[in-house]
Amino acid sequence: MSDLPARESMEFDVVVVGAGPAGLATAIRLKQRAADAGADISVVVVEKGSEVGAHILSGAVIDPIGLDGLLPEWRSDPDRPLKTEVTADEFMYLGHAGGVTLPNVFMPKLMNNHGNYIGSLGNVARYLGRKAEELGVEIYPGFPAAEVLIEDGKVVGVATGDMGISRNGEPNANFTRGMELRAKYTIFGEGARGSLTKQMVERFGLNAGKDHQKYGIGIKELWQVKPEHFRPGLVRHSMGWPLPNNSGGGSWLYHFDDNLVSVGFVVHLNYKNPTLSPFDEFQRFKTHPMVRDVFEGGKRIGYGARAIMEGGWQSVPRLSFPGGCLVGDSAGFVNVPRIKGSHNAILSGMLCADHLFAALQGGRAHDEVASYEESWRSSPIGYDLKRVRNVKPLWSKYGTAAGVALGGLDMWLTEIFNWSPFGTMSHGKPDHKCLLPLSQVKAIKYDKPDGVLTFDKLSSVFLSNTNHEEDQPVHLKVKDMDLQKASEHDVFGGPSQRYCPAGVYEWVDGEGGVRYQINAQNCVHCKTCDIKDPNQNINWVTPEGGGGPNYVNM
């Protein structure tokens, strides 16, 4: 393919990769600052989803601090995306047959959800997209950024992926060359484990001196429930069953809008047992006697999954580098115990935009906007993350029961005295190194789904509206297939079949022995494979434009 035609190019002041809350907040803030100063700044946002919001998934209980700062009038806007305020806040610890509801008085103030809103983060992104376009931001959905343009050691833009490439790697009759989008500064807001962000982290050593990044996988369903089971504004979280004490995670259950219930389950990806299936743990959770009645007579109408950055304060990489910056979950601004990150995503976009605007007004281009990196830890984002920095390490080290209790104590001491006896703890090993060989564990057995309350992966993927052009190169790149067989299969028992929530990976018996089958068309872009593969032998890259899930109200 060396004889491909040259790409056309367009010039902008700022290119933003990813139309999530962070990227759109960056674009909106830049345009606001430019309007206030009577300046003209050109901003373009490229988004791999078929539309803004198509790939956005979260619980979501949203702290409005970000929206309040970015668009102070949003609460009075008839088009506002969030309308259900939290009215009840419950926290449960579950056992196999029962559980206890923990009194809110024992919870640190930062865990209080009153004043927050329940809704769809995808719809928040759509709202921000409309506001950005009203300000003159150009948004190109369905155009994944596939390559970072680097010249003289500086980022100078991105190139969108070529379209019309056949599975064999050759151009077909529908071939269209990608476009170069060149800019003075390029902002990466791809979300967790962004395919270009991880390249920038490695190339510019952005994680030097930082702790390992940690991850979870969040799996979500959207239900329409019967009116008698609906409690508008209810927020309920749980931990414990069905996960074993040495595997971290928990659930959410939120009632919002018109008889909608968002239910989901997070599994921390540092679990050890390769037979654990986050998807099946979630299905099993819904059968708990304190949970299942909510869904009686209801209908499941949505499904999705995504990775979550969980490293927090000690794992945030350097945010600036020559010609570019990281914002939102590309940087890892999720507050794990609060199960919230969208507020910090918006705040980081605003903070980044303020420093970018100053650089542009000063006539700068392609240099490092180091002031952004130097400012975030003393901002509200830093305050939010620092006070919970030890919760995840304590949970990982001491298990759910003791770890959560110690984490609560740490949060109280930090809140009251701004001091922790634990200092700042390390997370330990990266997630992909935590799996034990199959021979050292007891296999976990899961019941077959009943099709009423519990479901299989393929019927779930159907509800995500996932679609990929079939005649295109597989976007899940196995670097060494022999290593995959010798290690992932022979040593660890094929955990990719279980950690993938979409049925993408299968080890299939055949005449020539077992073979690895990749059903790439099922991929919901959660990127768990890129994180959890024990040999880091799977590389997730962007598929052809617009492919993936098309989430509605998620």
UniProtKB/TrEMBL annotation:
Residues 215-308 form the ETF-QO/FixC ubiquinone-binding domain. Binds 1 [4Fe-4S] cluster. Residues 451-551 form the ETF-QO/FixX C-terminal domain. It is an enzyme of class 1 (oxidoreductase). Keywords: Electron transport, FAD, Flavoprotein, Iron, Iron-sulfur, Metal-binding, Oxidoreductase, Transport, Ubiquinone. InterPro entries: ETF-QO (IPR040156), ETF-QO/FixC_UQ-bd (IPR049398), ETF-QO/FixX_C (IPR007859), FAD/NAD-bd_sf (IPR036188). Its EC number is 1.5.5.1. The keyword Flavoprotein applies. Its cofactor is FAD; [4Fe-4S] cluster. The keyword Iron-sulfur applies. SUPFAM superfamilies: 4Fe-4S ferredoxins (SSF54862), FAD-linked reductases, C-terminal domain (SSF54373), FAD/NAD(P)-binding domain (SSF51905). It catalyses: a ubiquinone + reduced [electron-transfer flavoprotein] = a ubiquinol + oxidized [electron-transfer flavoprotein] + H(+). Accepts electrons from ETF and reduces ubiquinone. This is Electron transfer flavoprotein-ubiquinone oxidoreductase.
